[in-house]
Design a protein that fits this description.
single chain, mainly alpha, globular
Length: 250
């Protein structure tokens, strides 16, 4: 197979994977085309359908999403302002890698904000909401037993998102939401390089125990410790993961 045939085959595979991913998303029809393109590309980056270092060509993306290049261009420019992609002149947009220093800064913010969220949630949480969190932990344990790390990561993200929702503070939720995609992407990218997240299950259970006891301060301390441990594990391996990906792409 020649180089040109290989490129065409790779583009066809990418288009097929992105179309399959897009078909799994719900509610896209409610968005105008620029917003629709933005959400698809953002979530594809978040879920590593578009890996760090991947080149995104407007024409290729427009054909795959079955829309003109204008809404795709608007979406990519917006994602560039959010630090998810970068424009390389005469080459296209490149999916940004996850820099260690940037990730460290994000975790410092999230550690504080998640602690505040769980403290606020503890004062108003209902038995039904506690039950929702406990059910997620049960599903996480099942995913770990089945060695399904992708499912575990999705459930982990949902656990933290639910606690933020239960805090009932829209401004706090907005601040955390700004950084949540980057954190999820980092966790997903490094999960196979880190120890099995059994400690995370134990820490989630401890958080719920504090919430059940109505001790918001203890819940905040356990949450911040939980985020700090996860941060250290990810920062320990993120550079080696980035280096290996760069090598694979050259």
């Amino acid at each position: 197979m020649g180089k040109e045939d290989h490129i065409i085959q790779e583009m066809d595979h990418f288009s097929s994977e992105l179309k399959k991913f897009t078909s799994s998303l719900r509610g896209l029809e409610a968005y105008r085309l620029p917003q629709r393109a933005y959400h698809i590309i953002r979530l594809a980056i978040r879920d590593l359908v578009l890996m760090p270092g991947r080149t995104i060509l407007e024409r290729e993306m427009a054909e795959t999403l079955e829309m003109s290049r204008t809404p795709v261009r608007e979406a990519l420019v917006r994602l560039e302002t959010e630090g998810m992609v970068r424009l390389i002149p005469r080459r296209g947009f490149i999916v940004e890698s996850i820099a260690q220093n940037d990730l460290k800064d994000i975790y410092e913010i999230i550690e504080t904000m998640d602690g505040l969220a769980v403290e606020k949630a503890t004062s108003t949480i209902t038995e039904d909401e506690i039950s929702q969190l406990e059910q997620l932990i049960e599903k996480q344990e099942k995913a770990l037993n089945e060695e399904n790390l992708k499912a575990w990561a999705i459930l982990d993200d949902e656990f933290h998102h639910l606690i933020i929702t239960f805090a009932r503070n829209k401004r706090l939720s907005s601040v955390i939401e700004i950084h949540s995609d980057q954190l999820y992407r980092a966790r997903l990218l490094t999960i196979s390089e880190r120890p099995l997240p059994k400690k995370s299950i134990i820490e989630h259970q401890a958080i719920i125990a504090c919430m059940k006891a109505g001790d918001g301060n203890a819940a905040r301390m356990v949450m911040q410790s939980h985020r700090n441990r996860a941060r250290n594990e990810i920062l320990h391996v993120i550079n080696s993961v980035n280096d290996r990906m760069e090598t694979d792409q050259t």
